[in-house]
Amino acid sequence: MILFFRQWQGELLKLFARRRTFIGFGVFLALEAFILFRLRTGGLRNMINGALARQGASLEYYDSALTMALQVLGISCFLLGGIYVTLVAGDIVAKENEDGHFRLLLVRPISRLRLLTIKFLTCCCYTVVLVQFMAGSSFLLGVAIKGWGGGFFALLLVDNISELHDWGNGLYHYATASLFLAFAMTVISSIAFFLSCFSIKPAAATIGALSYALSDLILKQTPYMQDYEHFLLTKHIAVWGQLLLAAPDWAVVLRSFTVLAAVNASLFIVGAAIFESRDLKS
């Protein structure tokens, strides 16, 4: 196991040594600053104030760093995070093949399954780090603007989530929800990783995974899929919003995250079977 963790550490160092790995972090910071500016002055602020007024809640108390951070995370995480997660995961196997590195990598005492396991775990780790960076930096920028304290108005209009918390409970629910969101987003990286196991270009794996994720999202938002939405991954990903409620429906949360875990495992197993059958020598 020590050798396994050393090899995983080496793969992580290789990933985070690339400049393009950090593009998503930089782009998100710029978008985050713009959204927070609009939350202070634009229509988003009016929307939140209107929702608070309908609940009879204090505008000054709930207009806090946590309320602003959740809006930034809800608006940007799936679309912007999905782009950079698929970019890294679609690249991680296909790029090695394109550059001809597999002959050298497999000279070491390492099996193909172990090599793929290390790369899959690296994709999952990158996804969790990226989402937690989004959640943490949104919160810290919110604190810089609004200061520490206040209430937490958990509002996700798309998923019909609306809940009021005090500061302590708000911090707990925001942190817990962001962790579940990070795990849910690993299913997007798993799709890109699965496609990357085929003999295709990295760009094709990235575009294929992104196309699937966006098609799934579009279908979720149409009224024609209401009877079949349990087949849509975005329906299960959206369950992270349940963790923002004071009393989450744990049966729904457990069911959706079991589905996501099963999809992750299935994509890895099928991807590994495809990779094992490939001729990497010629």
Helix/strand layout:
Layout: H1 2-16, H2 23-41, H3 43-54, H4 59-62, H5 65-92, H6 94-98, H7 102-105, H8 112-146, E1 152-156, E2 161-165, H9 167-196, H10 202-221, H11 233-237, H12 250-277
Antiparallel strand pairs: 1-2
Q: Assembly type of the shown chains? A: single chain
Q: Per the principal axes of the C-alpha atoms, what is the gross shape?
A: elongated
Uncertain runs are none
How many extended strands?
Answer: 2
Number of domains: 1
What is the mean predicted local confidence, pLDDT? 85
Distance between the termini: 32 Å
- Estimate percent helicity: over 70%
What is the number of helical segments per DSSP (H or I, 4+ residues)? 12
| Strand line-up in the sheet with most strands | 1-2
Q: Can you write the helix and strand succession as a string?
A: HHHHHHHHEEHHHH
The main β sheet shows up as: 2 strands, antiparallel
Cα Rg: 20 Å
Strand content: under 5%
- What class do helices, strands and sheet pairing give? mainly alpha
Protein name: ABC-2 type transport system permease protein
Transmembrane segments: 21-39, 68-94, 115-133, 139-158, 170-194, 257-275
Keywords: Membrane, Transmembrane, Transmembrane helix
